[in-house]
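Appendix C. Worked example: Integral membrane protein
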Amino acid sequence: MLVAQNCTNAPAETASDAGVAGAGVLLSFIITAGLAIILSSIIILYEALRKSESRILRKLLQSFSDQQLITGIGIQSVGIAKLDTMVPYHFFIIWMLSLLATATHISTLLALVGDFKRDWVLRWLRQLLMLVNLVLSSVFGVYVLRTNLTSLPGTLPIGCVSVVPSKGAEGNAALSILGTCVVIAGNFILYVFALWYLHSKSQRWLTGLQIIGIVFLLGIATGAAIRIITLSQAFGNASVKLADDGEKDWSFGQLLPLLLLLLPIVSAIEIFRGEMNVPPPICSDGDSMKLGDQELQFQPNPFWGSRSNLVKR
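Step 2, the predicted output written as structure tokens:
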């Protein structure tokens, strides 16, 4: 547990944490978010132009998204568990990684909404994981906001914001405070939009919403990636003095997150070779249908709701 003595004197430097801000960890989040947004854009265009059902691309996208969502929740859980030892520098990087995870799973939802409508288990599991990600990200945002408001020294644990007397925000902290508040509010807005989009029966303006959403999420992911690259020791200059260069070193622990990115590709190869079957995006009377067609099957939760519920344009 954190004690007041640990928050009295700020050390001149702090230890690096490659498990949070190592080059391989950061690259895996950035690459996954980029691939997810690109795949989502391709699938949306294919569906809009009636070119292809893109089953392989759908499988790739869902695999990348699931992986990013789970790792995002995992790394945020590590940050919460290490409040008594983790400095604001690493805490902020985790928060930026959570934004990349949010951009990934929202862009996936935009492209694969039909898959989630078809399967109530996938739909409610996705909603639960999105809620967990929102709660964790909001907690991180509150701590980052309190750090800016109290001008906490960068080498003290982030948990010290509850112990150290507030010195007031620095003169140049106004922009950071405003940006933090906007991001926290934006996370809630994105979650509400995702729930509405997932349960909406109207297919009007579907393609327009998808395109606007992808562009918006691309901006979020780009901004978060830039902040990570410029503020991290692995790719830029750390915003706090670190005792060593451990975050720049490559080891198996840094290669593992990148190697895991190959697993979805292996699944895609198995689908291409016919060794694995993937159901069509939407099923109605046994026939494959695309988003935007006249009638889309919506599988309700068996514990409540009408079993004959159909989504119509």
